[in-house]
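haha ok so turns out i had the wrong file open the whole time. this is the CORRECT one, sorry everyone. sequence first:
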Amino acid sequence: MSGRKSGAPLLWLAVCFGSALEAVALGSRAVWRNGSAVLVPDYMLNLYRTQSQLERTSNYGSATRARRRANTVTSFVDQSKDEPSAESHQQYIFNLSGLSRTEELVEAELRVLRKLPSDLEKLRSSAGNLYHLRLYSCSSWGSSGKPRLLTSRIINILDTTLSTWDVFNIGTTLKAHHRLHRTTQDSRYVCFRITVASDLTHELISPSLVGLGLEGQQKNERALLVAFSRTRRKENLFREIREKMKAMHMFDRRAESRGTPRRRQKRRTTLAGRAGGAGTAGGGGAIVGGGTGGGGKGGGRRRTRCSRKPLHVNFKELGWDDWIIAPLDYDAYHCEGACDFPLRSHLEPTNHAIIQTLMNSMDPESTPPSCCVPSKLSPISILYIDAGNNVVYKQYEDMVVESCGCR
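then structure:
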């Protein structure tokens, strides 16, 4: 199997392909958590599927030259009330409390669903088919006391026969907001506003007339704020899991009284049984004992040399399926076997491992053998729900063993 480099740069390839694949008709997926349903946006599902495919098939060498290095994508759903649009604008509000202040914000975009106008012919006859969409920030007001204009574009209501997502780049605005309020609670909410004006009459019209209203929207049709960020340090999965479990009250003592210990004990028994079986089948029992079982003249059966062995991880069995959306399982592999002298070149031993193995072959009692450990690891992508019920895509390094060596 070919080695895989860090997958973070490929995230931007996945974004491009994912956007191209996105369609309103795709079925959204709801995940039940703590008795309530959390809807997974189509965009996030497509991003995960596309990135997973790239991880399996792409040449990672060329991807390292990518300018963007985001390894985390967090989606925030519009919190505006489901009510008719104002005559002059449509407003969107997002709760960004789930955006980590320790991560570097790389880019951000606002995704707004524009449906087909309910009365296309009437709209054309009164205001034409070209309209100016203007996006404002109502979180940062201009010097005149009015919302600050961020960007504008012209749309043609005759360009498509399907609903479409209008995507606005708001990276500069969100970065400034993130830096300004990094140490305060004021950054919890951000607000955006869209106005629509006819290119024919230059008059403002209600955004709902061109399909931008909130009234009657389904949950999977709500606007999305998507933040792309980069973790400055290598993510520790255990630390993040611990934080997520605390936030979800998975350590609540009340759960213990509802039979949780029995469930956990069953999982531990299952995992322990697997570990025991794997050790027997993979020759694990034959290599316990520091190298005296098979190398000497009076040794027993021959030990398995250091190599990669199967290890299948099932997040559901670990009890993490109530916050991990995908994958529900994956092949992590592990390293197992003896590092006997002479060491094979494909094991890529360090000089220290060579010397240690040589000393062990001469006097096993004084020097332990070198260890069979992962020499190359690759990342996987995980789609999960954070403590604020936001859907997050993150790439975790060092999750899959690609090759083993003696160290």
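DSSP finds nine helices and 18 strands in the chain.
again sry for the mixup
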